[in-house]
Automatic annotation (TrEMBL):
Pfam families: S6PP (PF05116). Transmembrane segments: none annotated. InterPro entries: HAD-like_sf (IPR036412), HAD_sf (IPR023214), SPP-like_dom (IPR006380). This is Sucrose phosphatase-like domain-containing protein. Residues 187-279 form the Sucrose phosphatase-like domain. It comes from Picochlorum oklahomense. It comes from the Eukaryota. GO terms for molecular function: catalytic activity.
Length: 294
């Protein structure tokens, strides 16, 4: 029985590009009779399957994710059974904050590939950062206001950033403070200095301090919540999830979105549960499977 359920966000509980049909939004009434916080509800249809979903705000790339109502209920049931739910994502802090009303309520939120950890404040719709963890990364400057440009940051991470920028490399650093994303095939993991770490995510290269990463953040939280890998599981799907997936007692995959994850699953078949269905139904399936172990 797990004490902690770690969960990735994109491709795990939030899904995109499923060839879906979203029947016109019904913002007047939700599945319980009221629309909480004015969130948009839609009927999702794929083949002969239907589900009620919440449609997330459109991303900077123009894509719009969905999360099913039954998914949100299932995460809540895990907490009712005494499990801690921790969301772990490579997304930037501003994206996480924008999504909070649409995501499963969690005991902790990890973003920027492990660089930042937040806890819900009273009421659950605002976050408080764990500055002990944030300041543990020696290759980063102290916490900076969002108005400060990364070109002025100190530390190994941002020195490497400036080096890449000077070579015309395509980098996404907007609203990041503990990581940045390289969207340029001219840069590979072999180019990353030994003082830093990297992972591939959504086809890009995320670069961050060696003290960061999903695994290190998860170990920190296991210790904080007096748990350990033998009492933790991870819902995930992509290359940047592999280290943590192998560290915990079992990993549950709603789908597989990278060749490296597929290879890892084939080499460790007993360690992974892979859903038989895809998308939101795969998420609901693995949540049900985890519930069966409680």
């Amino acid at each position: 029985m797990p004490d902690i359920v770690f969960s990735d966000i994109d491709g795990t509980c939030v899904h995109y590009d499923m060839g879906e049909t979203l029947v016109p939004f019904c913002a007047d009434v939700d599945f319980e009779g009221e629309t909480p916080l004015g969130l948009e509800r839609a009927e999702f249809q794929k083949d002969d399957a239907r589900a009620w979903v919440l449609a997330l705000p459109e991303s900077s790339s123009g894509s719009r994710g969905i999360i099913s109502v039954d998914t949100l209920k299932a995460y809540a049931r895990l907490q009712d059974f005494g499990c801690r739910v921790i969301l772990v994502s490579g997304c930037r802090c501003s994206t996480l904050i924008q999504r909070i009303p649409y995501l499963p309520q969690a005991d902790a939120y990890v973003c920027e590939s492990g660089g930042r950890i937040f806890y819900p404040a009273q009421g659950g719709l605002s976050l408080v950062e764990d500055l002990v963890w944030r300041n543990a990364h020696s290759s980063l400057p102290p916490v900076q206001p969002s108005t400060v440009a990364p070109e002025t940051y100190s530390g190994d991470l941002w020195e490497f950033y400036r080096n890449l920028k000077s070579k015309g490399i395509n980098i996404d650093s907007k609203n990041y403070s503990t990581a940045f994303r390289v969207k340029d095939k001219r840069v590979s993991g072999q180019d990353v200095p030994s003082s830093l770490a990297y992972s591939t995510n959504l086809g890009s290269l995320d670069i961050y301090p060696k003290t960061s990463g999903k695994l290190n953040a998860a170990i920190y939280l296991m210790n904080k919540f007096s748990s350990g890998p033998e009492s933790s599981v991870f819902m995930c799907d992509d290359d940047n999830d592999i280290e943590l997936a192998l560290h915990v007692s079992r990993a549950y995959l709603p789908g597989i979105t990278s060749e490296s994850m597929q290879k890892t699953v084939e080499e460790n078949r007993n360690h992974f549960y892979v859903a038989k269905r895809n998308g939101i139904w795969g998420t609901e399936e693995v949540l049900s499977e985890i519930m069966s172990t409680l």
